[in-house]
Amino acid sequence: MTKLPETTTLIDEAALAAEMAAIADRATAAGADPRPELLAALKRANLEGRASARDILIRDRDGVACARRLSALVDALIHVIYEHTVTRVFPGGRDEKIAIVAVGGYGRATLAPSSDVDLLFLLPPKSQPLADKVLEHILYFLWDIGFKVGHSTRRVEDCIKLGRADMTIRTALLEARWILGDKALYAEMVTRFDNEVVKGTGPEFIQAKLAERDERHRRAGTSRYLVEPNVKDGKGGLRDLHTLFWIAKYFYRASTAEELVKQGVFSRKELTRFHKCEEFLWAVRCNLHFVTNRADDRLGFENQREIAELLGYQLHPGLEPVERFMKHYFLVAKDVGDLTRIFCAALEETHAKPKPMLDRVLHHTFRRRKKSLPGTPQFIIDNDRLSVTDDGVFERDPVNLLRIFAVAARNDLDFHPDALKLITRSLRLIDADLRDNEEANRIFLDVLTSKRHAEAVLRAMNETGVLGRFINEFGRVVAMMQFNMYHHYTVDEHTLRAIGLLAQIERGEEQGDHPLATELFPAIANRNVLYLALFLHDIAKGRVEDHSIAGAKIARRLGPRFGFTPAETDQLAWLVENHLVMSIIAQSRDLSDRQTIRDFAAVVQTVERLRMLLMLTVADIKAVGPGVWNGWKGQLLRTLYYETEPYLLGGHSKLSRDQRVAAAKAELAAELTDWSEAELSDYGRRHFAPYWLRVDLPEKVMHARLLKSMEGTGRRLATAYSTKKFEAITELVVVAPDHPRLLSTITGACAAAGVNIADAQIYTTTDGLALDTILINREFPEDADEFRRADRVLKMIEATLEGRERLPEIVARRVGQRKATKAFRVPTDIKFDNALSETLSVLEVSCLDRPGLLYDVTTALSDLNLNIASAHIATFGERVVDVFYITDLTKLKIQSGAKQAAIRRRILAAVTGEEPHPPKKAA
Prior knowledge:
Layout: H1 13-30, H2 35-60, H3 63-89, E1 99-102, H4 104-107, E2 117-123, H5 131-145, E3 149-155, H6 156-165, H7 167-174, E4 177-181, H8 183-198, H9 202-220, H10 238-252, H11 258-262, H12 268-292, H13 301-310, H14 321-352, H15 358-361, E5 370-372, E6 379-382, E7 385-388, H16 393-396, H17 400-411, E8 414-415, H18 417-424, H19 432-435, H20 438-448, H21 454-464, H22 466-470, H23 472-475, H24 491-506, H25 515-520, H26 527-536, H27 547-561, H28 566-577, H29 581-588, H30 594-604, H31 607-622, H32 631-648, H33 657-671, H34 677-684, H35 689-694, H36 697-711, E9 718-724, E10 729-737, H37 742-753, E11 757-764, E12 769-777, H38 783-801, H39 807-815, E13 829-833, E14 841-848, H40 853-863, E15 867-876, E16 879-887, H41 897-912
Parallel strand pairs: 2-3, 7-8
Antiparallel strand pairs: 1-2, 1-4, 5-6, 6-7, 9-10, 10-12, 11-12, 11-15, 13-14, 14-16, 15-16
Helix pairs in contact: 1-2, 1-3, 2-3, 3-5, 3-12, 6-7, 6-8, 9-10, 12-13, 12-14, 13-14, 14-18, 17-20, 17-21, 21-24, 24-26, 24-31, 26-28, 26-31, 27-28, 29-32, 30-32, 31-32, 37-38, 37-39, 37-40, 40-41
């Protein structure tokens, strides 16, 4: 299947053989063992050959040629070792009727730099006295050179029996390639394998290979758009091309891809795509092995930049070289998927004509049946899948390129491979006229807003190329990755997943995880606006302009195209422009601060916008990738919604501040039925007004009982914990004498214990105690395990507060010198804002995340004698945003520009680990 390039010889085989002979002669004359010197010569030849292969790859970037050169290098070394063995070590060995055969990937004459060398040692029926010794001698040389050799020693009869019984062995034998030895023995094995194993078993082999492919995709990640893909085993990777090779060779008896053109499986254009995919993927894989110096086929963040540089990608406005490289990677993976579909369509047609063999191949149980669809005479159902009546369907009416997807969504039908192939070959019909066609745009909106099948049908539309052609702006983000640890998928894949999640919320399937969004969805006045806003929310990624602002401009252009009124278009553009606002405020602002709610309400303005923004935010966050969404983020969004809705409805001013404080005290008193009036009165004076207004009732009850229990112990320190399973949060409560270093001590103990802090609330009592609530991300699913973890963390906090553990030492011991990965570059941004709160300054630190960062920053704030009222920690992959509400020791905001500059310098030093330098005085 591989196009055979010119292969540069990496080593001079004749010269190496002559050198080996000279070494052996010298050792014999001296009575010495020649093996160490022979091995050194072989290792040197191998290293020089590999170095040459890498140099040529960097120069010509031809991955297939590199893989063939490396395969030829191993061939040459085996030839030289064999000649030495049968000439010098076992002189009679040349007469042994044995054959050395390459199998597996090595059998295809393509070898990645760190791949295994798979060998079959083929023996005749009768035993040969020297055969085992010759083969063992060759193997030990290969192992000692450093190759990972997978080998088997078999007779032809064994190969046939095992080939029939084991599909993996059958596949390996399918790729068998003679290297040296008895060619007649090899030819006998190939002939018998074809006649006794392959013949008549095509459907069985195809079914096994396709099932194996599906399982491999499941293990590697079902999406081909994972941002750290597996180049070999991932969806759209080299193994998918290998699967085509195996099936083609087995069923079509094709030894090259060119033969598939002759048989009508691929067009000449598709063959060119095949070769381009193969060359690119091999270039990536070979470079990856050279860079990592191991057989690692996962294209991780830590290697993507270097490989992008090796492959020559350049900076483009809005896109880094690494992002351009990865976009190319995902477009190639998409092409591999297209070729697979085309190939399967040809297989189906070939099988279906003579007899219903395809039914066995693709798990169908009935004969091929075709039936018409009422109202759509241009489409038919073929074996329960949607297809076309003839190849001219799209030429006659290009709107059918949209209509077929609407029919699939409406009738819950999968697409027939023939239909998908014809769609892919008809993309040129999608032009400006079709994009402006009113019916085509109405059909697309119907597909997008389909309550049950939007994600699946849109994905098919994207895979075939229709989506990016019909909406040009979306075409720019197809296969676009964002080089960060936060986003797990490409922009287009993330968008389609978000649409699917929104549909699940609308269907009521997310009640458990998203109760508020599920409850509110029926109240959405215009669901079409919401769905299109979600579809467009990231459509301007990869541009120089902020993607939210640029996306809003695109929304204003597209709204009228899809039949939206001016008011609906304004709402659409607003949602796109502000799609990150709710998430940012919920995760990084103090939601108990009335100024936060006032500011957010001023942006949102209406309850309808608030509802729609909540839906969009939930779907957006959850579609980022596994593990990004958690219950705590959901709780923050619900809190922001519940605080903002009454404000928008005017309910915020019904009670005065004093009345609300009095109501909160009365609410607590109703829960503490075992307390006396005097105890309740005294306790009511222990807290300031913000505490009564901001803390939920269950926490107030726990705090009251914790403070009362502490009074009888004689200690000025108490701790408690509780878990919130739905929010995936564990709450740690620490009561201790108030002092500026309290929070830094607690965060340091948490860092030493290896926990991630999600949020922190700090309250001070009127009698000088600090009541700090630290929310940490839950680690264990079972409460008993999480309780033990929380107890361990609190014991660490108590030990540090009581001086039994020295914090710098334990943080250094537990955290060590681990730094954030060097793959990412996140600029440090430190901002002050005195308008976000009436009484507090807001300090926002955005930088590259690393272990112990929060401890270092809070320690710096303590060194500056600043009071921290609350801390809010949001992590976005490798980037962290820590927000602190602070005052000076006199409880006043930080207004002085000089003071703010000094704080920035000290925080910057804490983030980077460098000593702060005072500003230079002007001369």
